[in-house]
């Protein structure tokens, strides 16, 4: 004989903890979105390959701590020299760089792997050093695409709205739908060219400077999702939205 209980009784029974023998208990095993276990990144301990044309020089920095600051200043800096230039990277005091000149490898180690800040800076410093080595040997490139009717870009030796920051500075002149042309000074160490009227090619040894200047150009006309117009960086895509119909 089957007994049916009212909904109020079922709510009271299922509200509290139920044992495995209770007929109203429903076993719902917890399932994760991903079946792979969580593994922290090990990029900081990966070795860096150094090309033959790149040289590393270690420089001891003077220990001058700012008044009222509890942070320990960096003790060592690495001077990375290659055919495309020279860059200097300051190493935090808790990191050690082992340079094997024979195998052309560089390895970073940290004092305390359990410290969250040290682990974060371990991978960050390793990525910076990798970018510096790649920058002075091959260089970094950013390609900007101007999508829109009448959008154009040219490289000019002079500008009327901004002043030159250093001798021989060139300027990027944009026509991006405004009533006046937009002029941006090219940072030092960055080479800009326009292989097409709607393409801007930025090259440089410092990745941060190249990408920052590309972001400044993009700020003047960000890609919009209705017509797909704007300035796109390195093959950037955007999902178009449906037009608003009243």
Mean pLDDT: 85
Number of strands: 13
Distance from first to last alpha carbon: 61 Å
Number of helices: 3
How would the global form be characterised? globular
Order of helices and strands: HEEEEEEHEEEEEEHE
Largest β-sheet summary: 4 strands, antiparallel
Q: What do these coordinates show?
A:
The protein is built from three helices and 13 strands; from the N terminus they run H-E-E-E-E-E-E-H-E-E-E-E-E-E-H-E. The protein has helices at 7-15, 116-137, 207-219, and strands spanning 48-49, 55-60, 76-82, 85-91, 95-100, 105-110, 140-147, 152-156, 171-175, 182-185, 190-193, 199-204, 230-233. The strands form four sheets. It has a four-stranded antiparallel β-sheet with strand order 11-12-7-13, covered by helices on one side. Strand 11 (190-193) and strand 12 form a beta hairpin. The longest helix has 22 residues, at 116-137.
List the helices and strands and how they pair.
Layout: H1 7-15, E1 48-49, E2 55-60, E3 76-82, E4 85-91, E5 95-100, E6 105-110, H2 116-137, E7 140-147, E8 152-156, E9 171-175, E10 182-185, E11 190-193, E12 199-204, H3 207-219, E13 230-233
Entry summary:
This protein has helices at residues 7-15, 116-137, 207-219; strands at residues 48-49, 55-60, 76-82, 85-91, 95-100, 105-110, 140-147, 152-156, 171-175, 182-185, 190-193, 199-204, 230-233. The chain has 246 residues and is an alpha+beta fold.
């Amino acid at each position: 004989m089957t007994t049916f209980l009212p909904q109020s009784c079922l709510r009271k029974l299922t509200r509290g903890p139920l044992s495995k023998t209770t007929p109203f208990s429903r076993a719902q095993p917890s399932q994760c979105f991903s079946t792979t276990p969580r593994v922290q990144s090990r990029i900081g301990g990966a070795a860096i390959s150094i090309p033959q044309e790149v040289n590393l020089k270690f420089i001891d920095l003077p220990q001058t701590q700012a008044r009222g600051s509890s942070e320990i200043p960096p003790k060592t800096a690495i001077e990375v020299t290659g055919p495309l230039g020279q860059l200097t990277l300051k190493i935090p005091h808790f990191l050690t760089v082992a340079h094997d000149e024979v195998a052309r490898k560089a390895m970073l180690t940290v004092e305390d792997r359990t410290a969250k800040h040290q682990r974060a800076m371990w991978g960050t410093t390793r990525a910076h050093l990798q970018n510096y080595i790649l920058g002075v040997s091959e260089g970094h490139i950013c390609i900007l695409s101007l999508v829109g009717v009448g959008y154009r870009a040219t490289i000019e030796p002079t500008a009327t709205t901004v002043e030159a920051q250093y001798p021989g500075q060139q300027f990027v002149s944009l026509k991006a739908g405004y009533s006046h042309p937009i002029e941006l000074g090219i940072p030092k160490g960055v080479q800009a060219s326009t292989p097409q009227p709607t393409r801007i090619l930025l090259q440089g040894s410092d990745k941060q400077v190249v990408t920052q200047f590309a972001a400044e150009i993009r700020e003047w006309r960000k890609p919009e999702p209705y017509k797909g117009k704007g300035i796109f960086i390195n093959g950037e895509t955007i999902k178009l939205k449906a037009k608003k119909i009243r």
